[in-house]
Design brief:
It catalyses: an organic molecule + reduced [NADPH--hemoprotein reductase] + O2 = an alcohol + oxidized [NADPH--hemoprotein reductase] + H2O + H(+). By secondary structure, the protein is of the alpha+beta class. The protein has 23 helices and eight strands. A hairpin with a 2-residue loop joins strand 4 and strand 5.
Length: 531
């Protein structure tokens, strides 16, 4: 059939002519093209990743910075979920005898600072360059992302300046009276339950929850005596670490790009929802009945900040005020409770220093009575030394993150570009024998007035330093000293049989703050039975 005949065929004849045979090779062309395209894209993408990875992994080597080879998937964060960040920082410090160490946050280069002089420049002298923190809780978590701990300038400066008045010595003297009431309840609790298993961290969390509840919200609760209460439910939820919670925290602190994608949050959602109801109810009552009672607490301070902001047309979102309330509670109860736990446990294993503390407390009692006021607590030299030593050994967050806003000369050999993440390794310096002889030994005497001059500046930073130093450090000292003074005045503590030594107590690996990773117990013996 030629082409002329084909053109004259009608439709019926064409249909009867049978199928048109298409060469087999033509059918395969589209499939082969797709496969070839996919292969080409995969090859190009793989080549890009290889080239990119080679550039990333050689970043610190090209700059002559000491480092360990990064993992292609996690960078330097291979310890995630297996080791506490503070412990890892300390080990990195001990591994590299260098003023700084190069690390990778997945594929992002970052720098650990191990030198006190460089730390001083970053935190104080050049703090305007290192004003902001790297951690971020993202736009999907306003309570976690808008608090004074995570927020950056200019909002940070405004909120910080307005909250500072809440932590003055005069305000803390007012709060200390409430802390004393709860400290006496703590003694009652120990007296009532000392023959039972009293887990130290739980005991002290009950106390700190009550004290912060009064200080921040004017709430009266009985968590110290009952381990229950509206805020105790919130702090209890916050203490429950899991693999998922650990992943949330790691992303917020070390890989913020993932936070909004997976909607991670700094605090458990159930806890924040419950806390929000409590806070809004308190705020509503205060606004409905202004001037009925002056609580002089955080809520009153936030009401004043809101009024001032509205007058200046600085309309902050409601979540910003809620975020400050949340961080005061959830950021303060755990660190103070951990410090009290470690202090009690260390003194239980060191009877000589415990007796030295008891002698100081008895002398103070004979002069001014057992209701130690703020000035008496300040004058308890050895008690203060004990707490300083506890915070040296067990700094709750022994590393300080910052971002360089411009290119910066670390020293004559290294310049970092803008956007580089910096970690000041406070816990590493806390355990350097060059600065603290026998660093793993519990020795409060190193902080005695006659010895404190031997401590090199910027080697001891349990609360950070510079403008972003922890705003609540005075409150933490006050609440911890108030509890410890009452407890050690009334009781002697001893280790229970078979208990691990302080150095052998496990550390929480899924969280970021340094705290016991296992239940901790001691034996409480009334001083009246020891005399």
């Amino acid at each position: 059939m030629n082409s002329a005949e084909l053109r004259t065929m009608n439709a019926q004849e064409f249909n009867n002519a049978g199928p048109v045979i298409v060469p087999q090779s033509f059918e395969n062309i589209p499939r082969m093209s797709i496969l070839f395209l996919l292969f080409s894209l995969t090859t190009c993408f793989s080549a890009y990743l290889i080239l990119r990875w080679n550039k990333v992994k050689n970043y610190w080597a090209e700059r002559g910075v000491p480092h360990s080879p990064p993992n292609p998937f996690l960078g330097s964060l291979t310890f995630m979920q297996r080791k506490n960040v503070g412990i890892w920082m300390r080990e990195m410090y001990e591994q590299f005898k260098s003023p700084y160490i190069g690390i990778w946050l997945i594929w992002k280069p970052a720098l650990i600072i191990n030198d006190p002089d460089i730390a001083r420049r970053i935190l104080v002298k050049d703090n305007t360059i290192f004003r902001d923190r790297y951690l971020s809780s993202g736009s999907t978590d306003p309570i976690g992302g808008l608090n004074i701990f995570t927020i950056n300038d200019p909002d940070w400066s405004n909120i910080r300046r307005k909250l500072t008045n809440l932590f003055t010595a005069a305000k803390l003297r007012f709060v200390q009276a409430f802390a004393l009431v709860k400290a006496k309840e703590l003694v009652q609790r120990v007296d009532r339950d000392r023959n039972k298993s009293l887990e130290l961290k739980t005991l002290f969390v009950d106390y700190t929850t009550d004290v912060i509840g009064t200080f921040a919200f004017g709430l009266e609760s009985n968590a110290t005596l009952t381990s229950k209460g509206p805020l105790r439910k919130v702090t209890d939820d916050f203490m429950r670490f899991s693999v998922y919670r650990g992943l949330c925290w790691f992303s917020i602190f070390f890989w913020p790009d993932l936070v909004d994608i997976f909607r991670f949050s700094l605090f458990p959602k159930e806890s924040t929802d419950y806390f929000k109801k409590i806070y809004l109810n308190i705020m509503d009552q205060r606004l409905k009945h202004p001037g009925s009672k002056q609580y002089k607490d955080l809520v009153d301070a936030l009401i004043e900040i809101r009024k001032e902001s509205e007058e200046k047309n600085q309309n902050y979102p409601d979540d910003l005020y809620l975020a400050q309330a949340a961080i005061v509670l959830l950021g303060g109860f755990d660190s103070t409770a951990s410090a009290l736990t470690y202090m009690t446990y260390e003194l239980a294993h060191d009877s000589e220093r415990q007796e030295k503390l008891y002698k100081e407390l008895k002398e103070a009692e004979s002069k001014s009575g057992a209701n130690f006021d703020a000035q008496t607590l300040t004058d308890l030299t050895y008690l203060n030394c004990v707490f300083k030593e506890i915070l040296r050994k067990y700094a709750p967050m022994g590393w300080l993150d910052r971002i360089a806003s411009t290119d910066y000369n670390i020293d004559e050999n290294l310049t970092i570009p803008a956007g580089t993440v910096i970690y000041v390794n406070a816990i590493g310096m806390h355990h350097d024998p060059k600065y603290f002889p026998e660093p793993y030994k519990f020795n409060p005497d190193r902080f005695l007035p006659e010895n404190e001059g031997n401590i090199e500046p910027y080697t001891y930073m349990p609360f950070g330093d510079g403008p972003r130093v922890c705003i609540g450090q005075r409150f933490a000292y006050m609440s911890a000293r108030t509890a410890a003074a009452q407890l050690f005045l009334k009781y002697k503590v001893k280790p229970i049989p078979g208990a691990p030594k302080p150095k052998d107590v496990k550390v929480e690996s899924k969280g970021l703050f340094l705290g016991p990773g296992e239940p901790v117990y001691v034996e409480f013996i009334p001083r009246t039975e020891c005399e």
